[in-house]
Each structure stands twice: as structure tokens, then as C-alpha cells.
Design goal:
alpha/beta; nine-stranded mixed beta sheet; elongated; two-stranded antiparallel ribbon
């Protein structure tokens, strides 16, 4: 089976229905085994490739995301465009697993001070979406989400925990917060072609596929309760947690234009891509505190963020799963020992510096004393009366030179 077809038919989705309906013809072609030509897929892949804006923020100074020499103060730009799937597609978008690795790499790189996510997506697959959303919410590096058209369903879940959410236009659409499943029952059509279906279950597997088979029989309640509602409950809880000021009317699946999305608490402002980049640099360079746009991301000292990043790197903690990790008493003791060692070393260096400063002051004082003594003992000789005749009439040897020559010849 075509891998894309398998993904489409494999389970529930967090996607805007307008886009999913547009895929009906594509789905039919995949089922028939027809080859789908989408033009130059290399261009699409390039548009989804992450990159780094080094230090200055100059749009023309981009470097590779995996570069080993990322300058301090850089911003990581990570596009999330088109349908969201868990795995990379051969001729399509990068999957959430790859994007999650980008977030981890950015958090672990001391040169990267902030991130910008460029979003234009109708949503997508459930699997992997929650993990990526949690990684962004728990990121120790500030994240700015820039909406470039559409951010619906799974796409909004992913960015809801960002430090700042900026839309590019009044006509950007945001929302569609909800869970759905669309089932294509192909069995009747295949049976007309002579295909026979036989399902045989083990004795103790009486409940296997029961919910899904009821859906095929037109009975949806069991699948809705046991699958869709479970997913949707976690989805809505994440949105409420990430955006506490969000209006409850946004959680029923409706989609909104950007101005209304601001009023309802879904996003923070409307601005350009350049403004999003400037915001990211500003958040990354703020030395004292990061003022976030929603109450869940409480204002935290940036110095603590840098310290926590160092702790993560020291103990190789996974940024995407911080809530499940704890520092052991031994690790806390290691931190205390390190801090005590650094503190002792700082005191030692300060004492040495004080000694050097005292020695330097004493040297200057001694030098000034010698200079004054030397100035007091200076004499001035009249050169016209202080010379010896040389061998030639025009040769003159001054007395002080003659005395020096005589002295050196006796040594």
C-alpha cells in the first residue's frame, strides 16, 4: 500500500475539513494506484527546511541548521507547512518527529537564543502532535510562532505554547480546534469487483476493532466516546493550559480570522515576518525577564533559563519530556558541589586580583619616587666648554662620551 494512503486511512485527524475534503480526488487516485505528480517536490522540501539567522538578523546571512559553528545570539527558523504527519514524506512535508528533533537541537545549542516557527497548515495526524506541542511549551529557548496563512487544528495545538503568536494578515485564519475522523468504506465497491472479505478473530479478541466496525455499520457513538473524545479532551486541556485567556467559544471547532482570533485570545498580534524575527531576537537577548503573552507561560528570568539550559546539557536531559524527569539527590548534590567549587575559585581569583592590584600600586609608587630622585640629581653641562679636540679639525668628541669610552676600555 502507498505509505501516504496508509497514513490517511490509519486513524483520527486534527485537520480542517475544508482541506480534507479537497483531498478526495487525491485519495481516489491513490486507491487506484495512480501516480500523483505534484511538480518539483524539491522546491517544496526546500521551503520546509530549517535554517539559522546568525546574530545580526540579516535575512541574507542564513546558515545550515546543523552547522557546528552557530554564532551566539542566533535565531533558529523552523517552517511547519502543509499537512502535518508524524513521519517525513518522500515528496512532501517534514514530519513532527523531525521538527521535534529541531526543537531539541535548538534547546541544546548555546548559540541559539530563540526560535521562530513559520506556520501555514490545516492540521493533520494526531500521532506525534501532542509530543511536539509539549516540546514547544517546555522549551527553555523562547519560541515565536508566525502564522503565514492558515493555522488550524493540530497546527494550532503545536504552536499554542509559544512565547508569542503573530499572524501575518487580517485574512489569516486560526482555530478549528477539534478532533474528527473521516472513514471511506471501500468494501462495497470492492465487493462489486469480486473481492471477498473475511475477518477472523482469536477467541479472546472479541472486542478487537469493535468500535471501528460499528462505525462501518453507521454506529458512531462508541468510537466517538472511546477514541475521539479522549483525544479531544487532551487537545482542549492543552489549549486551556497554554492560553488561559482563550475564550471557550473557540474550542468547538470554529475557525476565525486574525482580528477576531486576537479578541478571543488565540493569538497575540498581527505583524510582518520581519517583526516576528525582531521579536525573537528581542526575547533571546532580554537579560532579565521574558514577558510572555499568555498567563500560563509565567514571566521567568532569562538568567534562570540560561542556567536551566546548562543543567539540561550537563545531565543530558530531554527537553521534550521534562515533566517526566526529576533531578536525583545525587544530581542536586553535584550541582551544589559545582557551585561551591566555582564560588571558591571566584574568591581565590578575587584575592589574587587584589594582590596584583596592590603590587601594581606599590610599583607605581616606587617608580614615581625614583623619578623624583633622578630629577633632583640631574646636572646641566655647558657643551661649548666641554669637548676634546679630535684627530681632525672638524671632529669634536664631547666630554661625556670620552669619559664613557675610557670607562668601558678599562673593563
Amino acid at each position: 500500500m502507498n505509505p501516504l494512503l496508509a497514513e490517511i486511512l490509519s486513524g483520527p485527524w486534527l485537520i480542517n475539513t475544508e482541506r480534507s475534503a479537497a483531498y478526495a480526488s487525491v485519495l481516489l487516485s491513490l486507491i487506484k494506484g495512480e501516480r500523483i505528480f505534484e511538480g518539483d517536490s524539491s522546491l517544496a522540501r526546500e521551503r520546509n527546511r530549517p535554517y539559522i539567522l546568525a546574530g545580526s538578523g540579516d535575512q541574507n546571512k542564513r546558515i545550515g541548521f546543523s552547522d557546528t559553528n552557530i554564532p551566539a545570539g542566533s535565531v533558529a527558523v523552523i517552517p511547519i507547512r502543509s499537512e502535518i504527519l508524524k513521519y517525513d514524506q518522500p515528496c512532501g512535508p517534514r514530519g513532527t518527529q523531525s521538527i521535534l528533533n529541531d526543537i531539541k537541537a535548538a534547546n541544546q545549542n548555546p548559540g541559539i537564543k530563540s526560535m521562530v516557527l513559520i506556520i501555514d497548515s490545516p492540521g493533520g495526524q494526531v500521532s506525534g502532535t501532542d509530543l511536539l506541542a509539549e516540546a514547544i511549551r517546555n522549551s527553555t529557548t523562547p519560541v515565536v510562532a508566525f502564522i503565514d496563512g492558515l493555522t488550524a487544528s493540530a497546527a494550532y495545538w503545536i504552536i499554542s505554547g509559544a512565547s508569542k503568536i503573530i499572524a501575518s494578515s487580517d485574512l489569516d485564519r486560526i482555530g478549528s480546534i477539534g478532533t474528527m475522523m473521516m472513514v471511506e468504506d471501500l468494501q462495497p465497491a470492492l465487493e462489486q469487483l469480486g473481492v471477498k472479505f473475511h475477518e477472523v478473530y482469536a477467541t479472546l479478541s472479541a472486542d478487537k476493532n469493535a468500535d471501528f466496525n460499528e462505525v462501518l455499520d453507521g454506529k458512531y457513538e462508541s468510537y466517538r466516546k472511546n477514541v475521539l473524545d479522549v483525544i479531544n479532551t487532551k487537545f482542549l486541556a492543552s489549549i486551556r493550559n497554554n492560553r488561559p485567556s482563550v475564550d471557550e467559544s473557540t474550542l468547538t471547532g470554529r475557525i476565525f480570522f486574525a482580528p477576531q482570533a486576537i479578541e478571543l485570545g488565540l493569538i497575540d498580534e498581527i505583524g510582518s515576518y520581519e517583526q516576528a524575527i525582531e521579536t525573537a531576537f528581542s526575547l533571546g537577548n532580554t537579560p532579565v525577564e521574558l514577558a510572555t503573552s499568555n498567563e500560563s507561560n509565567t514571566t521567568q528570568p532569562m538568567k534562570f533559563k540560561e542556567t536551566w539550559k546548562a543543567i539540561q546539557n550537563f545531565f543530558k536531559l530531554d527537553p521534550s519530556n521534562l515533566e517526566a524527569q526529576e533531578l536525583t539527590s545525587d544530581q542536586v548534590q553535584q550541582i551544589n558541589d559545582q557551585l561551591a567549587s566555582v564560588s571558591a575559585r571566584n574568591e581565590e581569583l578575587e584575592a589574587l586580583l587584589a594582590q596584583e592590584q596592590d603590587a601594581h600600586t606599590a610599583t607605581l609608587t616606587e617608580f614615581e619616587t625614583l623619578r623624583r630622585e633622578d630629577a633632583a640629581g640631574e646636572t646641566v653641562a655647558a657643551k661649548a666648554a666641554d669637548k676634546f679636540p679630535g684627530e681632525g679639525e672638524e671632529t669634536v668628541i664631547y666630554a661625556h662620551d670620552k669619559i664613557a669610552d675610557d670607562f668601558c676600555s678599562k673593563q
